[in-house]
Amino acid sequence: MANFHTHLTAGVVGSAIIAAAGFYFELYGLTTAVLCLAVGTLGSLLPDIDLDHSKPASQGFLIASLVISTLITILYANRYHADKLLIDSLILWAGAFLLLRLGLFETFSRLTVHRGMVHSVPYMAIFALMVVCGAFYGLKLTAFVSWLFGTVLFIGALIHLILDEIYSVNIYGLKLKKSSGTAFKFFEMKKPVGYACLYMTILALIYLAPPSTDFVRALMRVGSTW
Question: Less CB within 10 Å around the terminal CB: N or C of the chain?
């Protein structure tokens, strides 16, 4: 499979292209473009959340926790203007960081097996939809921006999974390695119940997610421009 630095580089490049394209077509401003870059880069590392013995991955998720908690705090500070905004923001930042690093990332790394169900397309779709719902209901962002962040995260994750599949091919011998098919997958015959639960969760999150009408219209407008 591709190493951490390869995933990080590809994630940054891919996310930068998406962020720049949206800014160029005036779908959003510079701040949103920067946030897209950060969210997409996080997505490119997300499939390795099930990897608990890699120092680069551990460092990556430490940085991701710092970045995400900072972004959440910035979004909060830009939206609310309370008398104790600074104190509230610091508390929010610390709480978000601890929840992400010691809660989400640490729990997943301990309870999951690398290249298991987490390393699959439907699992990444769940994370993306959670971002959509969290941004809309939690951070009170618009439906357009919420779907934008979720989509960028999902694309970043797909870049990771595709890279792992590419690296599972022995180019020189033109043959597949044992790891082939363990990264970019939609279903596993050995785990039918588990994957059924994943897809049911996806349907539930789609039902809870805000309308995607504005986001789809924006993409169609860009497509017609091309």
Answer: C
